[in-house]
User: What shape does this take?
Amino acid sequence: MLRTRTIYPIFCLLTLLHGSAVARPSCFAYLRNGDVYATCDGAQLRLTKTADVADFAISDDGAAIAVEREYVIGRTSDNSGTIADCKVDLYGLPTMSSASSLGHSCGALYASCGTILLEDRTTGVLDAITGKKLQLDGYRRFVCNADRSVVAGWPHDNDRDFSLGTTTTRRVEAVAGGASVSPSGVIGYFTAASNTNSVCQIDRRGKALCLKEADAFGRISVSDSGEVLFTTHTEDGCFYRSGKVTKAQTPATGNDQCLGIAVWKPGSAKVIVEELAKHPQWLTEKAADAVKTCAATPQGCNRASRP
Assistant: This one.
């Protein structure tokens, strides 16, 4: 029997999490069917309109957005498949002025360490805004807060041991699939040991608080106030075709579970806040202001839609 699932508007959700209304509801951005969206103050904003975005990140200072697109560069030797590469376009916010483009093997984009990081398993971590490689002692892959005083990540290639610390490292999880550090230094991560992954938050005392069997995967983002956004499954069935997700209509069941974005804070249950969406990112006040300004202009953020 299916359980009843409730989807709350974000402003109501934060009231539930904090126990009282907040003066300024938070905003978060995400991907849905190849485009970047944001939900701010209960309203949905669409930032791109090409349905070809593979990843994105918005800097915490609201000055830039990086958009990654995948394109075909050839076919395999046996002609059974295609070979793809990616291009990252960097735009200034809120005007969407074109700043630079980066060609690379496809990697992950995320806002961290006071900038936008581009993680490439071959070349390491690149600061997408400065175009320079970023290295932190003791880590191969990492996330950190704005002043880089709180660092967490993975020490070695192909290493899933999740550790934290700057001068010395301490392993906090044997197998972790993804992590986030808020601008002030709150740490969030999810385990990757099974299909019922837990999602965890490390408080400023270094204690890990977890929601077991959270079914967390993909991208994760934690806010300064401790709410963790993560990709999960919903109870509906969906069809997945060419990177697009559509919900199956009864009597069809789809070919897999639908995906969505959930939010969790220690002491509460997870709540689905967006369906058919992935790659969530909390937006700081500066980033939220930039996104709202961009979306409110006559042309919106459509300049980010031009490769």
